[in-house]
């Protein structure tokens, strides 16, 4: 079953850089570089907000990748509200994503309304199913428990759950309200994507997955491309400390192209027609932006080979399907 049209047919609209976009269903334009907003443990809110302002005002980011689970949406909303009020930004020129966590698997509109309230906006450009999982619902004085666990610290899964229920409900919300422009998924495998397409007759706008030189996801990316699904790369630099930037090959290529190692990674993903979502809390680093180059096909292949035979994950949750 192939429901696709090529979403990258106008990949370089506006030239290579922050203005480059791909097209989601319905003609929604998604910028190819977005700012990841997960909050590191022990992080400082003021540092996060300074970094976000630097991304939006100094580095020309127009794509914010958020999520209920990240616990940063209220901070993002505070920054956006201030910039909108001062007319330094227009909501219509931003692409804002959020995600529904598995503890809201069959009532995602509750999570959506929380996100819209905290972000201080009235619609999302993209709403994503964060994981294909269904957690038991447990409430405490702080609200819905994100990851309920048993005595062995394993996530408690709702035995009646089906991850496609979440996706179907997101489609219903999109079709019956003005709160969502496009619906996507995250951490889906090829069999899961195939089941989704077969049973719903639709294709998700995106599949957001961990993707970097040590985890190039070649087969999954090809499957998505052949079916018109945009691939988004989270943790493109690895986990904390950006270990991907320390790979000898990446450092050698950076020297060869006279750019920084991070530029090699960003251009590697763009060359593969993958949306990249780097994360940083360093405002000064963000202000420097990226250098866009024409990475040679041979160099893309060399980078792919780093993780093709022995892939390495940095984000490896206990409830992930690959841990089954």
Automatic annotation (TrEMBL):
Keyword Oxidoreductase attached: yes
Transmembrane portions of the chain: none
Presence of keyword Transmembrane helix: no
Active-site positions on this chain: 70
Keywords annotated in UniProt: Oxidoreductase
Binding site for substrate: 130
Domain NADP-dependent oxidoreductase: residue ranges: 33-305
Residues of the site described as Lowers pKa of active site Tyr: 99
GO molecular function: oxidoreductase activity, acting on the CH-OH group of donors, NAD or NADP as acceptor
PANTHER family: ALDO/KETO REDUCTASE (PTHR11732)
Name of this protein: NADP-dependent oxidoreductase domain-containing protein
